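Entry:
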Amino acid sequence: MIELRHPFSEEAVRALHAGDSVSVSGRVWTGRDRFHKHFADGGDLPVDFRDGALFHCGPVVVREGGTWRVVAAGPTTSVRENPYEPDFIAATGVRLVIGKGGMDERTLEACHGNGAVYLQAVGGAAALIAATVRRVAGVHFLEEFGATEACWEFEVEKLPCIVAMDSHGVSLFDRVRDASAARLAELCPGIRCSR
């Protein structure tokens, strides 16, 4: 497993390849639909994402005394951010985008052109991922967006992921689609898998 620690350098990110197992440690920020729309509409970003990590996650966080505790932190489906992610990557210099389910060709091109990767976190493992959050360092847009859509700042330790889209233009999702289409053609000649 390759260990990545914030800040994530372009050199370290460009050394990654689709299929690599990685663990992410250090500062990670969450951002979902409202956060991306805010960015697309020209809103100010609360932090500097350069050499950072953006986690598509709507966590369950509870207040205990003067601190926050993360109860669940599963990845959310990333495809919803396709309209925004290429511009976000280019504008901010973010290096890691973490989510589930993959993203489109434009995001893959943005990763290639800007030295970023898309990491697949395990869906359905929200409690296990929450256990990697050592502390909540801050929260932005809590009042405006609500708890699940706010931009949370997590300090994580060894968050496990797979490099699903690398900075070399390779996507595991494309590989799976192409292999499945080839196998379908073997099993059912005459049936074509559309893109």
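The chain is about 30% helix and 30% strand.
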